[in-house]
Amino acid sequence: MAFTIAIDGPAAAGKGTLSKAVAAHFAYAHLDTGLLYRAVGRRMLDGVDPLEAATSLLAEDLDADDLRTPDVAQAASRVAVIPEVRAALVDFQRAFARRDGGAVLDGRDIGTVICPDAEAKLFVTASAEVRAERRFRELLDRGLETTFETVLADVRERDARDMDRVAAPLLPAEDAVQIDTSGMSIDDAVAAAIAAVTEKG
Ligand code: C5P
């Protein structure tokens, strides 16, 4: 089986960990589409027009170390509301999804807009508090100074922007399998995700 697997959900729900594990399990390629918006947001913070940044994005821009900071995450969610920016990133994502050998794409609109024909769709959620706690620990582990309250406010702000926007808002595809990871260990969540995909095969 060589599927396209769409994994969507809000910030810090565990999509990254799940997507990597699912991709490794099926030996598929993986694209974290949040990195595209982060790379555009990063360049906007440097003064580049977001649309200009989106149309000239290079694959190597996605490797930059500084894309995983809270400031860049906020900038990413601001450029992500611009329909022209989203449109400029569609072809790259669809080409990735169609590659031989199968692909896992994670983001906000993969199952709804980018790959509505994906063979397997997961929508990964967790409560805002659980997601903020996970992101808080991750940032502390990386040596960034912050507070739980700051991270929770950031998660809620990005949720609101992602869900309320007109262009490709965050919402589960009708045929998505929903996985709430709030009370789950990583291993259990990975097992649930792999089982959900296998069932489609
Ligand atoms: O997934 P990640 O937190 O890295 O995404 C950063 C931001 O990029 C999100 O808050 C969201 O606004 C935007 N995004 C999006 N569509 C995607 C992936 C990310 O709008 N497919």
TrEMBL record:
<keyword id="KW-0067">ATP-binding</keyword>
<comment type="similarity">
    <text>Belongs to the cytidylate kinase family. Type 1 subfamily.</text>
</comment>
<feature type="binding site">
    <location>
        <begin position="9"/>
        <end position="17"/>
    </location>
    <ligand>
        <name>ATP</name>
    </ligand>
</feature>
<dbReference type="GO" id="GO:0006220">
    <property type="term" value="P:pyrimidine nucleotide metabolic process"/>
</dbReference>
<dbReference type="InterPro" id="IPR003136">
    <property type="entry name" value="Cytidylate_kin"/>
</dbReference>
<keyword id="KW-0418">Kinase</keyword>
<dbReference type="GO" id="GO:0005524">
    <property type="term" value="F:ATP binding"/>
</dbReference>
<dbReference type="GO" id="GO:0005737">
    <property type="term" value="C:cytoplasm"/>
</dbReference>
<keyword id="KW-0547">Nucleotide-binding</keyword>
<keyword id="KW-0963">Cytoplasm</keyword>
<dbReference type="InterPro" id="IPR011994">
    <property type="entry name" value="Cytidylate_kinase_dom"/>
</dbReference>
<feature type="domain" description="Cytidylate kinase">
    <location>
        <begin position="5"/>
        <end position="197"/>
    </location>
</feature>
<dbReference type="Pfam" id="PF02224">
    <property type="entry name" value="Cytidylate_kin"/>
</dbReference>
<protein>
    <recommendedName>
        <fullName>Cytidylate kinase</fullName>
        <ecNumber>2.7.4.25</ecNumber>
    </recommendedName>
</protein>
<keyword id="KW-0808">Transferase</keyword>
<dbReference type="InterPro" id="IPR027417">
    <property type="entry name" value="P-loop_NTPase"/>
</dbReference>
<dbReference type="GO" id="GO:0036430">
    <property type="term" value="F:CMP kinase activity"/>
</dbReference>
<dbReference type="GO" id="GO:0036431">
    <property type="term" value="F:dCMP kinase activity"/>
</dbReference>
